[in-house]
Design brief:
Layout lengths: L2 H19 L14 H7 L5 H9 L4 H4 L5 E6 L11 H20 L2 E6 L5 H9 L7 E4 L6 H12 L4 E3 H21 L8 E4 L5 H10 L7 E5 L2 E2 L7 H7 L1 H9 L9 H5 L4 E4 L10 H5 L5 E5 L9 H6 L2 E6 L14 H10 L7 H18 L14 H16 L9 H24 L10
Parallel strand pairs: 1-2, 1-3, 3-4, 5-6, 5-8, 8-9, 9-10
Antiparallel strand pairs: 6-7
Helix pairs in contact: 5-15, 5-18, 6-7, 8-9, 8-16, 10-11, 15-17, 16-17, 17-18
Length: about 450
């Protein structure tokens, strides 16, 4: 079967499944409501008293309503997967899928919320108005560089965690994989040279996290559609005003002022992290062959990586990762966002800092290391649900340490809380499956 027909097969199955199930999530009660008298408790007249209490103390909304575990998955639909600007309505299946993963892997209740607000300031003001209803905001599929501006403003102006998964989630998972890949090849992050292929939502925050972890900016080369960034590029003044995030990297990276494109950026480097456009052929075998000994190649474009993993191996790469689950070493942000929000919500954090993301990456890497890392296993898979509990605890502890948590808990309390929520979610799901209330997809 050709690659195209293999991918087309999943498109056809997915459309059929979406029609059959009429969406992927729903809201069901979690309190007893089968008797008429219960309506007096959960609705009128009883519900007036919780509302009165919250009017006197807004933080009570995190204790006596579902806000403590409720987030919004917000997009303007301007950069949806590899489909581009398809609009908010067409983005709904993706946002709903995100909400499904939030619930299944992290026990987080998430509401898909595409909004018609393409202007950045209009988008920011709209999201800010949602704050009373949610414990956190997950931004999704927003075009670059607008996404950087939106995230920066909302992180400053809201008192609940705001996270852009295309930026921070991918960067966290990438860092986790790289930590263990470097252990396998026996190199230190402070010593290696790194080529970052693609300068969009993923690689700019990845650059930032790598530098915070100790990577030397002078040994890093970021490549966009016009070539390697450097301080003397023809468009440097334009970048300063139109994309200050990329401009900053141009100024501080590439100490040797290397010129050229992907080929030149990869020359002699230890690591390449590509998050650019679907391949194959974006990265060529001969370019991998000219990397340093024991090269590390992360080709993360979906559905087809910039270079096939076997091609990278044939060219001499020691460790190869992609974004696909059918190849070893899948680097996927689903490993990060459910548990990072689980930890942030469990201590009612006001934000998610870069340091919390780094702690999550370190915990992911340590989990895999304890199980035994090798060239085809540098990061856990999404089937290893115990790692989500571990990461949630680590993130919550970092939030308390940095003073961004509203409440404090012991490690045992955090673990018990995260385990209870995540395992109960899985138990409820299994019960519905056993009862036949959720039909298996193979019945289609």
């Amino acid at each position: 079967m050709s690659l195209k027909s293999e991918v087309d097969k999943w498109y056809e199955i997915s459309l059929k499944a979406h029609k059959y199930y009429e969406g992927k999530i729903e809201v069901i009660p979690k309190v007893p409501i089968e008797k008429l008298i219960y309506f007096a408790v959960w609705y009128t007249p009883g519900v007036a008293e919780p509302s009165r209490a919250i009017s006197k103390n807004k933080d009570l909304s995190f204790e006596i309503t579902s806000r403590w575990n409720m987030i919004a998955v917000v997009t303007d639909g301007t950069r949806v997967l590899g489909l581009g600007n398809i609009g908010p309505e067409a983005s709904y299946p993706v946002m709903e899928g995100k909400a499904l993963i939030f619930k299944f892997l992290g026990g987080v209740d998430a509401v898909p919320l595409p909004i018609r607000a393409r202007d950045a300031d209009d988008f920011v003001e709209t999201v800010k108005k949602l704050e009373p209803a949610f414990g956190g905001i997950n931004l999704e599929d927003i075009e670059s560089p607008k996404c950087f501006y939106i995230l920066e403003r909302l992180r400053k102006e809201m008192e609940i965690p705001v996270w852009h998964d295309d930026q921070q989630g991918t960067a966290t998972a990438t860092l986790a994989g790289l930590i263990n890949a470097l252990k396998i090849v026996g190199k230190k992050i402070s010593d290696v040279s790194i080529a970052l292929i693609g300068a969009g939502a993923s690689n700019i925050p990845t650059y930032r996290l790598l530098v915070k972890m100790g990577a030397n900016p002078k040994n890093m080369y970021l490549v966009d559609t016009k070539g390697i960034l450097h301080a003397e590029r023809d468009d440097i003044d334009k970048l300063r005003f139109e994309n200050p995030w990329k401009y900053q990297i141009a100024i501080e990276s590439n100490g040797e002022m290397r010129r050229g494109g992907i080929k030149e950026a990869m020359e002699g480097v230890d690591v390449v992290i590509a998050a650019s456009r679907p391949g194959p052929g974006v990265i060529k075998k001969e370019w991998v062959a000219r990397m340093n000994k024991d090269a590390i190649v992360f080709a993360l474009a979906n559905p087809v990586p910039e270079i096939w993993p076997w091609e990278a191996k044939e060219a001499g790469a020691r460790v190869v990762a992609t974004g696909r689950s059918d190849f070893p070493n899948q680097i996927n942000n689903s490993l990060a966002f459910p548990s990072i929000f689980r930890g942030a919500l469990d201590v009612r954090a006001k934000t998610i800092t870069d340091e919390m993301a780094i702690r999550a990456a370190e915990t992911l890497a340590r989990f895999a290391e304890e199980k035994g890392i090798h060239e085809d296993y540098i990061i856990p898979t999404m089937e290893e649900y115990e790692v989500y509990i571990r990461v949630a605890v680590a993130v919550a502890e970092k939030a308390m340490e940095q003073g961004v948590a509203r409440i404090s808990k012991s490690r045992s309390e955090l673990e018990e809380r995260a385990r209870e929520i995540i395992e109960k979610t899985r138990e409820k799901y299994a019960t519905l499956i056993r009862a036949g209330l959720i039909k298996d997809i193979v019945q289609l």
